[in-house]
Amino acid sequence: VHEVNYIKKFVYEFQILSEMLSVIGHDVTVVDFDDTWFEGKSRPLLDLSSRRFEAVNRVYRNSTVTLRHPGVIRVPLVARLSGAITCSMEVWRSLGEFKFDAVLLYGVPTIGIQVLVEASLRNVPVFFRSIDISHELVPSNILSLPTRIIEGFVYRHATGVSALTPRIKEYVASYRVPPSSIDVLPGGVDTEMFSLGGLSLIH
């Protein structure tokens, strides 16, 4: 579960990890948020219908990720609020339709608390993947403090936290999260896509 558009967002860990899990045999469902809603000039203003896409892939051609794409009200400020509701509804619907082993949560301010509550009601563990510091990424200083409060809530109530780096692990632990609940999983390199090749040193 994340707060960005799976299809339109540039490829990074969110898509890579989802599709890697799919390729090795896991049944992966992604619920995203259309943070590019303002680009969809052809879609209606009240675009609240949820869309579902099968066998989605951005990285691996043999990925079979299922994408559930909630709608939003395409109006500034209202879009994020409506997305919080529609994404929450989509997560609840997904948890009710299928028996998931776990939820991997990336998003904090828009969907974080709802996912924790809904997964708890469905008895599904939630693992938070911490790859950045959310409150430093919000577009307004006014939103920084509320986002920081939500960050702490998510860190403390997730089943576990997976940090991208040791420094991020230290940051998460600063919210009174037991270090034993935080693992470090660095970003990897797919050696089938990338190789060292010929090296030349520049001094």
Q: Care to describe what's here?
A:
The chain is α/β, with parallel strands linked by helices. Helix content is 31%, strand content 16%. The protein contains five helices and nine strands. Strands 6-7-8-9 form a four-stranded parallel β-sheet, covered by helices on one side. Strand 6, helix 3 (112-121) and strand 7 (126-130) form a beta-alpha-beta unit. Helix 2 runs parallel beside helix 3. The protein is globular. The model has no long low-confidence stretch (mean pLDDT 91).
Please give the structural blueprint:
Layout: H1 13-23, E1 29-31, E2 46-47, E3 51-56, E4 65-69, E5 72-73, H2 78-97, E6 103-105, H3 112-121, E7 126-130, H4 144-157, E8 160-163, H5 166-173, E9 182-184
Parallel strand pairs: 1-4, 6-7, 7-8, 8-9
Antiparallel strand pairs: 2-5, 3-4
Helix pairs in contact: 2-3
- Assign a percent range to the helix content: 25-40%
Q: How would you write the strand order of the largest sheet?
A: 6-7-8-9
- Rg of Cα set: 18 Å
Summed over residues and divided by their number, the pLDDT gives a mean of 91
Instruction: Tell me, briefly, the overall form.
Output: globular
- How large is the count of helical segments? 5
Which structural class should the secondary elements be placed in? Answer: alpha/beta
Number of strands: 9
- Percent of residues in beta strands: 15-25%
Largest sheet report? 4 strands, parallel
Question: SSE order, as H and E?
Answer: HEEEEEHEHEHEHE
Through-space gap between termini: 44 Å
> Regions with pLDDT < 50 over 5+ consecutive residues?
none
